[in-house]
Amino acid sequence: MAFITANWNPLGEAFYRKTELYEMCWNLRDGLRDSLVAAAPYGGPIALLREPLRRSPSSRPQLEIYSASGVGIASFPWKSGPVVQLGWTVSDELLCIQEDGSVLIYDLFGSFKRHFSMGQEVVQTQVLEAKVFHSPYGTGVAIVTGSSRFTLATNIDDLKLRRLPEVPGLQGKPSCWVVLTQDRQTKVLLSNGLDLYIVDNTSCTAVVPPGLSPQAGSVVHMSVSFSYKYLALFTDSGHLWTGTSNLQEKLSEVDTKKTTTPRQMVWCRRPKSQQPSVVLMWDRLLLVAGVCNDTIQFPLEDPCVLIGELDGVRIISSTNQELLQEVPLVCQDIFKIASMAPGALLLEAHREYEKLSQKADEYLREIKEQSMLGEAVKQCVEAAGHEYDTNTQKSLMRAASFGKCFLTDFSPDQFVSTCRELRVLNSVRESSVGLPLTHAQFKQMTVQVLIDRLVYRQFYPLAIEICRYLKIPDYQGVSRVLKHWASCKVQQKDLSDEAIARAVCVKVGDSPGVSYSDIAARAYECGRTELAIKLLDFEARSGEQVPLLLKMKRSQLALSKAVESGDTDLVYTVVSYLKNEMNRGDFFMTLRNQPVALSLYRQFCKLQEQETLKDLYNQDDDHQELANYYVTASYKEKRLESRLSLLQSAVDEYNKAKNEFAAKATEDEMRLLRFQRKLDDEKGAGLLGLSLQTTQVRSDAVSIMWAEPEHFQATMEALLALGLHKQAEQLYRDFRVPDKRYWWLKLKSLAEKEEWEELEKFSKSKKSPIGYLAFVEVCMKCNNKYEAKKYVSKVTPEQKVKAHLAVSDLEGAADAAIERRNEAEMGAVLSRCSASDRLVIDRLNRARAGAAKK
Amino acid sequence: MAAHLSYGRVNLNILREAARKELREFLDKCAGSKAIVWDEYLTGPFGLIAQYSLLKEHEVEKMFTLKSGRLPSADVKNIIFFVRPRLELMDIIAENVFSEDKHHSSRDFHILFVPRRSMLCEQRLKEQGVLGSFINIDEYILDLIPYDGDLLSMEYESAFRECYLENDQTSLYHTAKGLMTLQALYGTIPQIYGKGDCARHVANMMLRMKREFAGTQNQILPVFDTLLLLDRNVDLLTPLATQLTYEGLIDEIYGINNGYVKLPPEKFAQKKQGEASKDLPTEPKKLQLNSAEELYAEIRDKNFNAVGAALSKKAKIISAAFEERHNAKTVGEIKQFVSQLPHMQAARTPCFPTLLKNEIQSLSNNSRQYPVSPVSASEAFFDNLTVEQEFMTGVDTDKVNTYIEDCIAQKDPLIKILRLVCMQSVCNNGLKQKVLDYYKREILQTYGYEHILTLNNLEKGGLLKPQTSSRNNYPTIRKTLKLWMEDANEQNPNDISYVYSGYAPLSIRLTQVLARPGWRSIEEVLKMLPGPHFEERQQLPSGLHKKRQQGENRTTLVFFLGGVTYAEIAALRFLSQMEDSGMEYIIATTKLVNGTTWIKSLMDRPESQTP
């Protein structure tokens, strides 16, 4: 504990420390010499290709993939063309950029995923140098070709190649170059001799870094910081210029007094630090240069590789791995010798407390007097986050916990979350897992990404543990892991479909948010259609199953799943797909087995394809519907013959459907149509003309007749209106019109035509089946009180009062009511009396009183 | 502005607000000024969610009705089509877009599908070559629309027809989805009961969807204890009968659509003595009917015979309060009076509660008055009612009915005839073939042969059918469920039968029995009614089990698949208010119907080609 500052090296106002992360698990025979090495930031994996440019076909170079701690993940002989550069994508995929411009993508386990090309012309000109870079858009690739042209792809998942403009005077490759991302634009900064250029999409501009001494010479190495904010340039005279990457501002210029070009140069700074510095590496020396003119130098025994991180630099050698970083301010405060910072005092207090010494109290008092206890706890918690050593973490957290006891209203959130996060970090830092993340990196990458990374490495149990421990909602946590696991599981070639399906089902179960159709899609991609179908069976959302089933050409199954989902739109979609896929016969047969789909398709046809509708009914021997179809069609037909023939088809179908009534009714309809035509033929235009000469009412009736030829009632009305009584009589008999209705018809018609004599004759022709009150009322409706009165006497006794009232004969009504001794009727008459009807009122009242007495 | 939605047992305003929020979000997605092109059918339902002012706040400057041809010109950046996912509408949209391109250049097109987007429609747009012209294609999930404080409607008119005639269960899918949305807002409903094939289908889909959404449900304490799904075809009788509640009658006489009634202008003529009123409004006036109007809420569910009394009582209270102004002496008293003014004014203006007063009074004047002109309608009304009641009590349902015969002979409106004939058929468990054929022939001869299609539809829907078995089970059902109450008290009801002056709606009896003593007591009757009956339970996450307070009412959501009438709603409200029922009801439906609109939706009219 006392020696915690032992590895601190001052540089200007800051300190730098080197912490060992791992002793590497690998056993490299030749170290890192002569190898192409790519290690991803955020504790990413390491790829190693030995002697990449050896071209003898007999001995193939070996491509090896290790975790950051050196645990071997994959190793296979490189069978493809010579590789210029290796790199990792943000989702832990390995990019192998070949000389011919093709880029091969492998996953962590060395299985080939896909490839793309950086352009056809590159095959000729060859890639001289390539770089893999990361930007907000994803992972990008930049190359410079033999014809000294740059080509960029900003996001390899959405490949758009951009060929940058020519650089004046550039022959071969530039002496050094970097990719910059500025203002949402990706550019290349390059050095050619004494000149610096920035090349973007459209132009190539010469630039001069501000304040670079003219005698500094030409730039031979350059490096851009992790955030693309800072730039470092190294010149052949050993000068190191640092400044902002937009070349607007200079930070410093240091003379390293080294004239050889460093093998690697990497920025080393932590976010928010005011002390940016650059780490340079030569064969046997590591040098840290900051804003001040001081430098720190470390001797190197072994060839190393530097990996720039968000908050430091990882140094990988063949034997171990170290993290070089600026000591965080809060750690400086606490651990600096003789520090009086509250955190330092609290740590001391706790140490004394553990020794059971009363000094603990003195230290505590000191902090409390300054009211700095809260601050002290915060410092300890924060510092613990930055420490890699678990013992240091523990003592800091214990001190914080101790200090917390003396605070009344202190939010424990930060303490709790730091505890949790440290526990997670310590477990992923384990050599067997090999993710040497710092707390700052973890915060930056988020726990989601961490889980993804674990999943890529197939550390499924650990990932699930972490999800549960951090209480991540299943949807984003456990389920996601299971999904990956299942997608991976379906690719296991040594297991049977059955076994895999079962295994997946057991593990995944009903976990929310795991889509079996996604897993099935994965299985299908791997060519395991049967497995895919088995997996789809577990999918709860039928809707989700449908698209994949269609893709797999399991259209019948897709249809039944669509039906199952209840989503009619989905059913329609499958149906329209099937319609295009199948021949008509098969299509109809398929629908036949799915009544729901069939009726939906019928609906569709009703609106869109009438003809198909007929075929459908025909195939199903649905005579009833077919008949209805013909009926509907008949109304669309103008010509009588076609109409009759359609109706005849309807009759046939109704008969087949054993719907006797409908058949008969339709036959009647045809009979009526024929009758109308006959009448029309016989009476000709005269009939129509006659109707027009008579009254308005009549012409209405006639127009109805012609507008709706099947309208029986209208026909009757028209006939009666036209005085064609004989024909009306004939219809009445032929169509078995009930007497009642015929009488009503005739009564109304005669009254409307004011043929009162005819009406009277008719009333006497036989006993009226509709009674005689109807006569009274109809006459009144035609404003003929005189005629109405004629029928009052014929009305049945029950309706007498009503009849008298209808003709406004109050006295008659009163007589009838009194005679019938009907209280209600008397009341009804009374209510119609006005003041002038004194006599009637008196009589009625007397009668009522008399009735009441009895 | 939608306060009446939040007063009930369940705050339905949450649902409305959720719907409004989604609408706003969509509108904001289309930056800049906008014009909305409406599928006309949607304007009514949307009116229940958002008024024009909301649209205006989001830069909607113009509104058009969707029709073929060219779009009207409007200087806006965005044209948004609000449409149902129907192919024929897609063709119109395509036409609109095509003719647009030639005349304007830079207007952005968007489509909002209500209630759901459809691959089929998008495919159609693609075939028409316009799919690419749309910047946003989105869906606006509007399944259940809050209609009143205790009422939700999908305003899906053709649901019954689609389900029972065309075997198209789209509406049921929307129902299930709507219920899922409801559960997302108001918690999982632990118990589901149902009767009928459609109910079973909806419940199955709900359970399936629940599995699909497993884990994403938010943890809400359930507001509803029970869901009851009822197929309309379990109770075909009730909608055929004439509703006798105040609101029901308004619906029967004038028709209420999307919560609005259109009244003829003469109702609003200011009747001032002597003056010839010059400025008569000429257009029908639209009034919104809901519980926001206190007086209306009070009388809407009363039997029409009790409305007159209730109104005059209310009028007395108000005018008494109004008279107090003469007694108000001190400033304080006057102030207090003024504060009550708006309330009184509202009650005094000739608004709808008093509108039907004349009709109601003439109708409720029960002693069959002899006709003075307008009341001849009232006589017909009572004759009709008498026949309905005869059918419902099982009098002579197996013979041709003289009244129906006379009505046909006098060519009364076809729908009236169909309502009666269907009612007779339902009450007789089908008509004798001879009787049925007689009615059918009379109808075809009198109203035209094209109605053969309508008659076929009614038979398919089970409203009209030949008697197949000799046993008529309607009387059993009537007796067991006490569907006819001889002594229905219209003024101070003690049973739901008051809503039809004697007839207790079957659907509501089923609901009532379910609450107490439970369906097990009526197994036999349930077997006679079509479709399965079932019970399902939905697991609640632990910790969400309600701890019921002593005497706290349970809440049941009753969902009528295929429509519900205002009288049935009144009956459920009555049950909620009964002190010892222990149950509150919230009502949901595909559409509010009455016999006329319902039969109309089942009619088919081939378009006749006039030469």
TrEMBL record, chain A:
* Span of domain Vps16 C-terminal: 514-695, 714-838
Q: How does it sit in the membrane?
A: Peripheral membrane protein
Cited InterPro entries: VPS16, Vps16_C, Vps16_C_sf, Vps16_N
The record's GO CC annotations read: CORVET complex; HOPS complex; late endosome membrane; lysosomal membrane
Gene Ontology process terms (BP): endosomal transport; intracellular protein transport; vacuole fusion, non-autophagic
Residue ranges the record marks as coiled coil: 346-373
- Tell me, in one coarse class, where this protein mainly resides: membrane
The entry's localization annotation reads: Late endosome membrane; Lysosome membrane
Keywords on record = Coiled coil, Endosome, Lysosome, Membrane, Protein transport, Transport
Q: Does the keyword rRNA-binding apply?
A: no
Residues forming the Vps16 N-terminal domain are 5-416
Any one Pfam family here would be Vps16_N
Function (record text): Plays a role in vesicle-mediated protein trafficking to lysosomal compartments including the endocytic membrane transport and autophagic pathways. Believed to act as a core component of the putative HOPS and CORVET endosomal tethering complexes.
Family stated for the protein in its record? Belongs to the VPS16 family.
Task: Please identify the protein, giving its name as recorded.
Answer: Vacuolar protein sorting-associated protein 16 homolog
UniProtKB/TrEMBL annotation, chain B:
**Entry's InterPro entries?**
Sec-1-like_dom1, Sec1-like, Sec1-like_dom2, Sec1-like_sf, VPS33_dom3b
Kindly indicate whether the keyword Membrane belongs to this entry: yes
Query: Coiled coil: which residue ranges?
Result: none
> Where can this protein be found?
Cytoplasmic vesicle, Autophagosome; Cytoplasmic vesicle, Clathrin-coated vesicle; Early endosome; Late endosome membrane
**What Pfam family is a match for this entry?**
Sec1
Q: Which UniProt keywords apply?
A: Cytoplasmic vesicle, Endosome, Lysosome, Membrane, Protein transport, Transport
Q: How does it sit in the membrane?
A: Peripheral membrane protein
In terms of domain of life, where is this protein from? Eukaryota
GO terms, biological process: protein transport; vesicle-mediated transport
What cellular-component terms does GO give this entry?
Answer: autophagosome; clathrin-coated vesicle; early endosome; late endosome membrane; lysosomal membrane
Q: Could you tell me what this protein does?
A: Plays a role in vesicle-mediated protein trafficking to lysosomal compartments including the endocytic membrane transport and autophagic pathways. Believed to act as a core component of the putative HOPS and CORVET endosomal tethering complexes which are proposed to be involved in the Rab5-to-Rab7 endosome conversion probably implicating MON1A/B, and via binding SNAREs and SNARE complexes to mediate tethering and docking events during SNARE-mediated membrane fusion.
Family affiliation: Belongs to the STXBP/unc-18/SEC1 family.
Please identify the protein, giving its name as recorded: Vacuolar protein sorting-associated protein 33A
